[in-house]
């Protein structure tokens, strides 16, 4: 049925634009206002600084900045490293997704947890891991990769493997096996079946995952900053350097806009394929159970073993090296964490930073989950009027934006726009949680929305017809389904807030740093004692996030709880 | 009493329900019968308050329902796939509306048990919906709807998702339950058997409009248009000479007479028919078949159900079997009748090799109708 225009007798509207619809609309204003004040305003302010230096539009910076040899080098590196990272991640992720979601073998749950873990590890921690792995005295120091672009690429794969495995695996798990079986019955070889039936069916998930991986690679900050040193920079680190080191706001603004345009394009692609993925998920067949491995599954299992090794090697190295100093086993690195006087590099002890991190993350999580729930409820509804449907679609897209906008831009934007009454938040302890909530919000929305969309609207109608008022009807139909994903989203938001570095590095006050900030400060300093403490602090942070995410994985929200 | 006056529902430029007027009396069951996409479910949803009206009025006992939200209408709605709340037990599903009304737990439990008994599922209270078969789920959905003691029960294709034998059994049960509870109901379905089994009255809906309304017996016997007739199971449509021939055979040949000698023209011969087509009045001796409009009209169409043509060695019509398909308790035949053309007919011996054979057909007046 084509829905173009609604004509309706006046007055007939009244019954349908009643209290609950209105209340829902008003509730949606809350996250919208949040997005406007803490995202659009800072980003807009940052851009204004760049393009409106003396109060009038000055675009001369665009050709000038884009003409710089350094800019071109940064753009080129961003592009090719992200592309290479995406290709490698998808190539490694597909066989792993197959093994972990189509096969059944002992220890599968554990392997899934291991593969997913890196995604929530703080970027700074990952940077530290790969540095200690590939450093000249590290286990793989002999490869001579330290200081090259290889660690950056490896870190990209390490990070984003989870995105591919969960997105593609989730879809693969739900594929109706009978389509493959009928192709095989018609005489297709296993490879032909995969190429002609399985791959086309998975295509939306693969494209969706690849888009997200590319997005995450091209906007990566902490990893590139810690691994790239001065030789390799992406657009994101360049924005950081331009604003903090060179005070070239115009250059930063030009790069931010460039990044913004690219991100919006990629999000549009992701949204398109995501819609396809969600429809397919609803059509999941019952005949999709995983089977026990057979002989021809050995390559996929081998690749999975390789992936596990690839994930565990840096983690293991980090663990081991955090207990060593000057060639001896020691707890000294950990002991130093509790001592505020252990190093002049820090103003507070790491233990205090951990407390700060936890407090901030709790606030950020509450904020992100409450707002994200409202957004998810609103964008999962399908209003009758085409105009409102477009509004809903726009909202859905808008709350994805923070996922791709440079956290650096947001952080710096906070500083320059929220610095005068009525919103002078420069010294407010709320600034860091707000920024972290902004980063976690899209993840919460993406976890909850597909779950809500998968609930048949007739469930609510059935409840309403039995006499349940709208809120009660929604609670009956959606409440029970939402419980676990809501817990998962909470854990997810908490882990992300704990590890957030890009925006926090700008906003954390010197006397109240979070752990990632402290780790970065430590590795920026020379000396084994600083590196040792950074390693120990990284272990603490990694353990914290892994515990949180382990709980989330136990909730088994399954494939719906991904992107 | 439910009253729909000139109800219109639009989706953008599409008119889903077009100027429909209906009434449903207290205690009666109305079936809205129509093919998928005819707007029957939309009409039901409009009555439930789930679709806004573009025009017209829906009233209950004279009170206009515009502005009354779904949950305050006091109706209940049962969907094709039950829409049971998956996270609640059978008892909690059935007791849902009672809980909303704060009925004390003990009383609620008693009522749930009664209803489970009524729908034939005693002892199912603690089960989860996922552990039930499709038929059981629909029974629970029915019990849940009845628990609300709705002023009006709205049934949206309640049995369509079930397999045939189950559907037939449940349709009978549903009828009994509705009669026993004296529930006023509107049933939406595309299955005419279901409509005939469950409802007292029916409205046939095509392309958004109600094209015929009446008691089920009336509609069954005397569809007014070809579309309606097709939809409720008439398969052969004859006009002109062919219609006259069949009519004449119906009215002049008493059933089970001795077969006319082979080679003799069928009675009455086509040449006997007046070319103007006015004189096909049955002879005074032959009583008109019950309920059949016997106005002979050459512009009219004679509609015949499959059961209107029965294989009978003594029948007045002669033809050759073109196709024979055995079903569970009969054989569906396509017979090329001399002077009439291909008709759908019914045989009763699936073992006989009938294709290509010459046969005779008896006409069952109850299976025929004149469409004006």
TrEMBL record, chain A:
What are the subcellular locations of this protein?
A: Cell inner membrane; Cell membrane
Question: Where's the ABC transmembrane type-1 domain?
Answer: 75-271, 354-552
Q: Which UniProt keywords apply?
A: Cell inner membrane, Cell membrane, Membrane, Transmembrane, Transmembrane helix, Transport
Print the organism lineage: Bacteria, Bacillati, Actinomycetota, Actinomycetes, Micrococcales
Q: What is this protein called?
A: ABC transporter permease
Q: What InterPro entries does its record include? A: MetI-like (IPR000515), MetI-like_sf (IPR035906)
Q: Does the keyword Transmembrane apply?
A: yes
- GO cellular component terms given for this protein: plasma membrane
* PANTHER family (alphabetical): INNER MEMBRANE ABC TRANSPORTER PERMEASE PROTEIN YDCV (PTHR43357:SF4)
What membrane topology term does the record carry?
Answer: Multi-pass membrane protein
List GO BP terms, alphabetically.
transmembrane transport
A Pfam family of the record is: BPD_transp_1
Family per record: Belongs to the binding-protein-dependent transport system permease family.
């Amino acid at each position: 049925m084509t829905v173009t225009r609604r004509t309706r007798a006046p007055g007939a509207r009244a019954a349908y634009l009643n209290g609950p619809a209105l209340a829902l609309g008003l509730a949606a204003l809350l996250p919208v206002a949040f997005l406007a004040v803490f995202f659009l305003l800072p980003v807009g302010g940052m851009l204004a600084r760049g393009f409106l230096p003396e109060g009038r539009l000055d675009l001369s910076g665009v050709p000038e900045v884009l003409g710089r040899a350094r800019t071109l080098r940064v753009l080129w590196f961003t592009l090719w490293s992200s592309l290479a990272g995406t290709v490698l991640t998808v190539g490694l992720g597909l066989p792993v997704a197959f093994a972990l979601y189509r096969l059944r073998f002992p220890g599968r749950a554990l392997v899934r947890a291991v593969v997913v873990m890196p995604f929530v590890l703080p970027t700074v921690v990952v940077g530290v891991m790969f540095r200690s792995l590939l450093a000249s005295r590290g286990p793989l120091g002999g490869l001579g990769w330290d200081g090259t672009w290889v660690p950056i690429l490896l870190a990209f794969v390490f990070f984003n493997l989870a995105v591919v495995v969960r997105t593609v695996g989730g879809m693969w798990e739900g594929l109706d096996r009978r389509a493959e079986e009928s192709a095989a019955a018609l005489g297709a070889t296993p490879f032909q079946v995969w190429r002609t039936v399985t791959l086309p069916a998975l295509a939306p998930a693969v494209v969706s995952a690849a888009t997200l991986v590319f997005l995450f690679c091209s906007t990566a900050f902490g990893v590139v900053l810690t691994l790239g040193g001065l030789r390799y920079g992406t657009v994101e680190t360049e924005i950081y350097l331009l604003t903090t080191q060179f005070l070239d706001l115009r250059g930063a603004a030009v790069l931010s806009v460039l990044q913004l345009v690219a991100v919006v394009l990629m999000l549009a692609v992701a949204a398109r394929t995501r819609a396809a993925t969600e429809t397919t998920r609803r059509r999941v067949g019952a005949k999709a159970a995983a089977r026990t491995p057979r002989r021809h599954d050995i390559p996929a299992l081998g690749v999975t073993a390789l992936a596990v090794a690839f994930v565990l090697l840096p983690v293991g190295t980090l663990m081991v090296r955090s207990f060593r100093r000057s060639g001896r086993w020691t707890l000294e690195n950990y002991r130093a964490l509790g001592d505020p006087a252990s190093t002049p590099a820090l103003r507070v002890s790491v233990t205090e930073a951990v407390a700060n991190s936890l407090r901030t993350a709790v606030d950020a999580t509450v904020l992100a989950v409450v707002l994200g729930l409202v957004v998810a409820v609103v964008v999962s509804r399908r209003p009758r009027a085409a105009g409102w449907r477009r509004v809903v679609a726009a909202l859905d897209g808008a709350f994805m934006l923070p996922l791709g906008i440079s956290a650096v831009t947001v952080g710096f934007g906070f500083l320059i726009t929220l610095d005068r009454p009525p919103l002078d938040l420069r010294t407010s302890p709320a600034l860091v949680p707000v920024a972290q909530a902004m980063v976690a919000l899209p993840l919460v929305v993406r976890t909850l929305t597909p779950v809500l969309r998968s609930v048949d609207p007739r469930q609510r109608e059935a409840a309403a017809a039995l006499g349940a008022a709208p809120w009660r009807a929604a609670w009956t139909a959606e409440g029970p389904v939402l419980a676990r994903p809501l817990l998962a989203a909470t854990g997810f938001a908490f882990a992300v807030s704990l590890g957030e570095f890009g925006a926090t590095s700008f906003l954390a006050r010197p006397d109240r740093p979070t752990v990632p900030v402290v780790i970065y400060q430590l590795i920026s300093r020379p000396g084994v004692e600083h590196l040792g403490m950074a390693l120990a602090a990284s272990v603490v942070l990694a353990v914290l996030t892994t515990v949180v995410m382990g709980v989330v994985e136990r909730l088994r929200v399954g494939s719906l709880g991904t992107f | 009493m439910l009253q729909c006056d000139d109800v219109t529902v639009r989706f953008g430029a599409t008119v889903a329900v077009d100027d429909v007027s209906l009434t449903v009396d207290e205690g009666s069951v109305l079936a809205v019968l129509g093919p998928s996409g005819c707007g029957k479910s939309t009409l039901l949803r409009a009555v439930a308050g789930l679709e806004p009206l573009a025009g017209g009025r829906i009233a209950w006992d004279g009170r206009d329902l515009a502005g009354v939200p779904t949950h305050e209408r006091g109706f209940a709605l049962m969907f094709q796939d039950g829409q049971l709340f998956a996270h609640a037990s059978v008892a909690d599903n059935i007791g849902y509306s009672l809980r909303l009304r704060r009925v004390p737990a003990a009383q609620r439990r008693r009522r749930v048990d009664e209803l489970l008994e009524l729908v034939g599922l005693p002892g199912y209270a603690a089960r989860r919906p996922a552990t039930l078969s499709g038929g059981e789920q629909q029974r629970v959905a029915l019990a849940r709807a009845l628990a609300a003691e709705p002023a009006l029960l709205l049934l949206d294709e309640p049995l369509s998702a079930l397999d045939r034998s189950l559907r037939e059994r449940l349709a009978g049960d549903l009828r009994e339950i509705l009669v026993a509870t004296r529930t006023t109901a509107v049933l939406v379905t595309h299955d005419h058997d279901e409509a005939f089994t469950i409802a007292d009255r029916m409205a046939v809906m095509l392309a958004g409009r109600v094209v015929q309304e009446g008691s089920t017996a009336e509609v069954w016997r005397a569809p007014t248009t070809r579309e309606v007739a097709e939809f409720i199971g008439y398969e052969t449509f004859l006009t002109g000479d062919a219609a006259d021939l069949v009519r004449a055979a119906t009215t002049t040949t008493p059933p089970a007479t001795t077969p006319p000698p082979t080679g003799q023209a069928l009675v009455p011969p086509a040449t006997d028919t007046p070319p103007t087509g006015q004189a096909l009045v049955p002879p005074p001796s032959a009583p008109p078949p019950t309920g059949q409009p016997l106005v002979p009209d050459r512009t009219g169409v004679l509609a015949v159900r499959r059961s209107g043509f029965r294989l009978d060695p003594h029948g007045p019509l002669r033809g050759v079997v073109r196709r024979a398909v055995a079903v569970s308790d009969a054989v569906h035949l396509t017979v090329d009748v001399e002077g009439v053309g291909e008709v759908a007919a019914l045989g009763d011996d699936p073992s006989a090799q009938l294709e290509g054979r010459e046969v005779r057909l008896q006409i069952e007046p109850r299976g025929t109708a004149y469409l004006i």
